[in-house]
Amino acid sequence: MSVTTPQGFVAAGIASGIKTNGNKDLALVVNQGPDLSAAAVFTANRVAAAPVHYSRTVIADGQAKAVVLNSGGANACTGKAGYADTVATAERVADRLGTQASDVLVCSTGLIGERLPMQTLLTGVDRINEQLTTDGGTDAAEAIMTTDTVAKTASASGTGYSIGGMAKGAGMLAPELATMLVVLTTDAKLSSAQAEEFLNQAMRVSFNRVDADGCMSTNDTVVLMASGASSVEPDADEFQELLDQVTVDLAKQLVADAEGASHEIEITVVNAASEEDAEMVARTVSRSALFKTAIFGNDPNWGRVVSAVGTTSAEFDPDMLDVTINGVQVCRGCAIGEPRENVDLSGREVSVEIDLHAGDHSATLWTIDLTHDYVEENSAYSS
User: Fold this and answer.
1) Could you tell me the sign of the dihedral formed by the alpha carbons of 73, 77, 78, 84, in that order?
2) Second label for 225, Cα 20 to 30 Å away, from 36, 279, 352, 372?
3) Residue 342 labeled ligand binder
4) Closest CA to 212 of 250, 269, 170
5) DSSP character at residue 295
6) Is 179 annotated as a binding-site member?
């Protein structure tokens, strides 16, 4: 269950010495073909890291042979020298693989504002190339971890093909993307245009709907590579469904590992006038500090939900709002519903459903509670 689950991919993850604690810090995922179709999505942050700027040029032709990823340093805000470091990394990988640097994507994650130890990194590239294997997906997933406590991988099987993936990210979780590096692989036969279309749709319902702390990273990158090794041209609907499944799985793993959280909160808005309205409402509630502190305090305070909904421009009748928390409809018609004491918030997973009664569209977003000093100061506050 990893990036090497599909045919045509090898990977490795090693401790190159970038991290002083001796943990794995360098990963390489290689597409052995026969196809090299690829697509990628990057951070919307205007302050983007050198690897993001470089990889945008690489993916412009819809082709990629490999992705090299390092943790232990973001190579962000490092100027022209940092960009040169990214190019040097791609060139070393390309030289060892016998390909062109223009086919090598580069990703970095870690502290902003520090140069990478290039001699250490390049020596690591030489070593990791010798350790590529069809079983290397797990090691690669471990090598991209920063504050993550567990490696994050997923896979799914289709009709004669498969999809695999790995991700990292634990803090700064907010759209678009979320301090995340994600590599997705498939052995299905896809054109570059198809890969881009499938990836954009999957992003919309997964990674762009996690929002833990409202912060956006400088390095976010999500890559999809297709080897075509299965020789199967997939049914579009089936492939999209499976890719969505993998990306949602990885997105939920990111939220589950978010720093300091005690609750994972799934917010679903139903019967909205549009999907945009549904997502707007879900995101607004997810960013309410008062709502988050209530959940942290095991208080199903639905008043904080409806008050957040009321600040949006979504179409709804304020007298028709329903709120259900962990299966208990605590608010009915924007009035008192079932006793809030019936809601059990002792577990880690919390589900919140908001019914706008304005249409037939829906959207789901994932977030976490707040566990900092703000909680202690505000968890007892009611409005």
Assistant:
1) positive
2) 279
3) no
4) 170
5) H
6) yes
Question: Does the annotation flag 168 for ligand binding?
Answer: yes
Domains and CATH numbers, the chain: 9-256 (3.60.70.12), 264-380 (3.10.20.340)
Burial of 299 (0-12, 13-18, 19+ CB in 10 A): middle
Give the predicted TM-score (pTM) of the model. Answer: 0.89
Note if 4 is an active site residue.
no
Tens of pLDDT along 314-324? 999 999 999 99
Gap between the Cα atoms of 221 and 179, Å rounded: 8
Give yes or no for a contact between 198 and 269, defined as CB atoms under 8 angstroms apart: no
Residue tagged active-site, from 86, 179, 185, 186: 179
Residue 303's nearest CA partner among 382, 218, 244, 370 is: 382
The owner of tokens 């409402």 is 281
* Gap between the Cα atoms of 4 and 227, Å rounded: 11
Q: Say if residue 383 carries a ligand binding annotation.
A: yes
Residue 174 has pLDDT above 70, yes or no: no
Measured at the alpha carbon of residue 138, what is the angle toward residues 31 and 106, in degrees to the nearest 5?
Answer: 45
259 known member of a binding site: yes
Provide the total of helices (H) and of strands (E) in the chain, helices listed first. Answer: 10, 15
